[in-house]
Design brief:
heterodimer, A: 156 residues, alpha/beta, Glutaredoxin, two-stranded antiparallel sheet, 4 helices
Chain lengths: 156, 188
């Protein structure tokens, strides 16, 4: 089971680039969207991270920061991010493997990868919405935007 | 995936029969190879069943991975200002492997489009707003890849890049309308 609405979002301190870490405390005062996903290099046009890259401007209307997390290494993330021109951080839950994902209930013990799970966390660090998608299905961005809209009373 | 949140309206480009009781909305990206594959399938469907279908194409350019997607969408919309949206749409897909801004001008010239006006329109706020509105309506409707098709507002989840998968979805919807079957059961 993934963490659901009302739970405090577990803290994290993970590599965002080969030499820089991102801590949850760095994002204080921001709405945070976390997208856990199984692996870099999904082959389909419009795969989840590519889609969110294009949706970033809509997320920004809600002052929301998007973060991707998988168990891929920081070097793998760097190559993937450059290849897809991603303009949001991908965090590496690599060592100890899946430690943060497990805290969110978003780790798949069978495959050793993250589940495809989404969380929207408010400024106080409380989860306001979460969604677990089947691994093979890209959940899109509509659920995230609906949740952001509900939290902020802003309509876009 | 969600249902189509923004119904077909007067800003949409359409083919087929505007009075048909089946609508097919495609969210597509001119530089996406899967959309190129879908293009002749839609053409065939409209050729064979155009009278029963109201087809609409909405822009869903993935700009960061497809550097010519947005300029192509803008070119098609600008051509649309001179009533040549579909002609441009076809030419862009047919020339997908060599897209460039120069090529888009050459295609417009081939269509006898007023180039000065085309150039102005393709950079206009109206055209960029149309593309953004299309994209946002897709995002809010749960579009997660291109092409995504909505049949009478419901996503065709069975589409597998074959003509039969499109046709069968349309036939099922037609049966539902005429025999009262549940759309959900047939499509999902």
């Amino acid at each position: 089971m993934i963490l659901s609405k009302g739970n405090k979002a577990p803290e994290f301190d993970l590599y965002a680039t080969p030499d820089q870490k991102l801590r949850s405390s760095d994002l204080k005062g921001k709405v945070v969207i976390i997208a856990f996903y199984p692996a870099d290099w999904s082959p389909v046009c419009g795969d989840q991270m590519t889609l969110y890259n294009e949706t970033r401007e809509l997320f920004h209307k809600f002052n929301a920061q998007l973060i991707g997390i998988s168990v891929d290494s920081k070097w793998c993330h760097m190559a993937f991010s450059e290849n897809r021109h991603l303009n949001f951080p991908l965090l590496s839950d690599f060592e100890p493997k899946g430690e943060v994902s497990k805290l969110y209930g978003a780790y798949n013990e069978n495959t050793g990868e993250c589940k495809r799970a989404l969380f929207v966390i408010d400024k106080a660090g409380i989860i306001q919405w979460s969604y677990l998608s089947p691994d093979a299905i890209n959940p899109g961005a509509d659920g995230i935007l609906d949740a952001l809209e509900e939290m902020s009373n802003i309509k876009i | 995936m969600s249902v189509l949140k923004h119904p077909i309206n007067s800003t949409d480009h359409f083919r087929g029969n505007v009075k048909a009781d089946i609508s097919l909305v495609e969210y597509g990206d001119f530089e996406c190879p899967h959309c190129k594959l879908a293009h002749p399938l839609v053409n065939r469907l409209l050729k064979e069943r155009g009278n029963e279908l109201h087809f609409v194409f909405r822009n869903f350019p993935l700009k960061k991975i497809h550097p010519h997607a947005y300029m192509s969408a803008a070119a098609a919309e600008a051509a649309g200002k001179q009533h040549k949206f579909w002609e441009m749409h076809h030419l862009i897909f047919e020339n997908q492997d060599r897209l460039s801004s120069n090529l888009l001008y050459l295609l417009a010239k081939d269509l006898n489009i007023d180039i000065k006006q085309f150039s102005k329109d393709s950079r206009s706020e109206e055209v960029s707003r149309k593309i953004e509105t299309d994209f946002e309506s897709g995002i809010r409707s749960g579009v997660n890849r291109t092409p995504t098709f909505f049949l009478n507002g419901f996503p065709i989840l069975t589409y597998d890049e074959t003509y039969d998968s499109l046709l069968n979805a349309v036939l099922a919807e037609s049966r539902r309308l005429h025999h009262g079957d549940s759309a959900i059961n047939l499509l999902l």
